[in-house]
Write a structure and sequence with these properties.
Helix content is 54%, strand content 10%. It is mainly alpha-helical and 142 residues long. Helix 1 (7-28) runs antiparallel to helix 2, helix 2 (34-48) packs antiparallel against helix 4 and helix 3 packs antiparallel against helix 4 (84-112).
Length: 142
């Protein structure tokens, strides 16, 4: 079997293109706050990266091809074929992937906050530790 017909190659191309789409989407949403940008980006990632099994009839009677595909693609094909028994499980997996993506985006935002790292040295209320002297002392040279 040539490498151009390989299922592995298909998944590698899909993974690479999905990373390009996610990076472009994240950078395109630069005008949004970080919280919203991360949750939207990881929501799309959860939708794109949730796999599910599918079954497709072959030309021979009673023969089926079974494989893995992104759940959103299987749900879309099930919708276009008006097959609710194919569409509903794939749609539920897509929703689970979206929720997991949003949760991961929120976790990244929460871990990336650094509210207490910034200390304004001119504001006496922002001191990290109280100083022993009442006033700020400048170094003396010589």
């Amino acid at each position: 079997m040539p490498i151009t017909e390989s299922m592995t190659l298909l998944w590698l191309v899909y993974g690479f293109l999905s990373l390009v789409v996610l990076l472009a989407g994240y950078l395109g949403l630069a005008f949004l706050p970080r919280l919203l940008r991360l949750t939207l980006t990881w929501l799309v990632a959860g939708v794109m990266w949730t796999p599910t099994r599918f079954q497709m009839p072959l030309l021979e009677e009673g023969e089926f091809y079974t494989g893995l595909a992104p759940a959103v693609v299987v749900a879309l094909v099930g919708f276009l074929e008006r097959s609710s028994e194919v569409m509903m499980p794939a749609l539920m997996l897509t929703l689970v992937g979206a929720v997991a993506g949003v949760a991961f985006g929120l976790l990244l935002w929460w871990r990336g906050r650094h509210d207490d790292d910034y200390v304004d040295m001119d504001d006496p209320e922002d001191d990290v530790a109280p100083r022993r002297g009442a006033e700020r002392r400048e170094p003396v040279i010589g």
